[in-house]
Specification:
With about 400 residues, the protein is α/β, with parallel strands linked by helices. The chain contains 13 helices and 13 strands.
Amino acid sequence: MDERRARRDDTDICVIVPTIREYECLREYVANAREHGFDVSRLHFVLVTEDFCDVAAMRSMLDGLDVSGEVFDGTRREEWYAEQDVAEYGHVVPAASHAETSFGLLYMWANPRFEYGVFIDDDTLPHDDADYFGRHMENLAFGGSIERVRSDENWVNVLYQNADEHGLYPRGYPYSAMDETVETDATEIESGAVVASQGLWTNVPDLDAVRILMDGDLEGQAQTRTSAEDFDEDFVAARGNYLTVCSMNLAFRREVIPAFYQLPMDDNEWDVGRFDDIWSGLFLKRAADVLGKRIYNGGPLCEHNKAARSTFDDLANEVAGLELNEHVWEVLDSVEPEVQRATQTAEPSEDGVADDADSFEAVFAAMADALAEGDFSEWNNGAFLNHCGEYMRDWLDCLDALNRTRALADD
């Protein structure tokens, strides 16, 4: 590992990129930062990849770009777990899965200099006319008036602004919550309340396989495409309303990491996959509601250039979890009363915070218990939710272990 590249002390933003193909998209993100005058020295890139990929070429790219960063294939991740004395928790991050973004969260947690994280998918590019990183940081620091969206289904379609024209619902949006009635108004947000900034996407929309098939596309993309004109004002979802959170273009504050675990998808006996970022977004939204925090949605947009692949392969990966996705949000929404108080109405006061759930870790622990101990046998593959709950507990234990390792290193 190149110590110069890995140990710049002025970095406070960890950019996490899961990649096995188009890692050179980072050239465009770095160029965007420099063109818009963003301080590139703040950025530290963590590429999460596999042993069969060209790790040397990835490291060479980072060197050529003169940016701080590291590359972690499977072997290097195992070494890192051992170095941090958390090898017993290596199972919380699944192998060969998009949910390996959780490794980036562990890496951030072990390095307290990182105040912010950014998820970028390798099939995206920034829009030239926007300061990509600067806009995300502005969103996280936002304070003022913003559009608030709610629906009679307690779900917000992040593509609602032009839905009458394109009719799209994003991947993870429950089928039972479709045909909702949308209401909007304005709300005031205090600076510091935004804990995540979800940038949306042009070109290929983020759809699930069923919706892609309904759109007449057999190559895993979509016949209907989105453009910048489909997005108007930035917005937040009302408290008590859920929304899909996609990790392809997302910035967040360090404090959310305990409640932002990307679940063990793909590598499980139930073959449930492709809901890692969707369900982690449910955890995040529930915790944000309880704690009086916000998820900001809108810009900066990215261009999503999803590669062609079989829509039926995606369907096979998604079908095992489709019924669970219709209900898991309801489980999270009805966790123990002591973490429910801040969201007992559709829209509680903006400063409503549960007295005994004052951290993302506390709210996440309550959700973990609800999943680990619940009876979900009425749903297909319901035992997977119990499995997730146990892994969520292990996630929190792993973060605690990293805290201990860091404390010993500081002594």
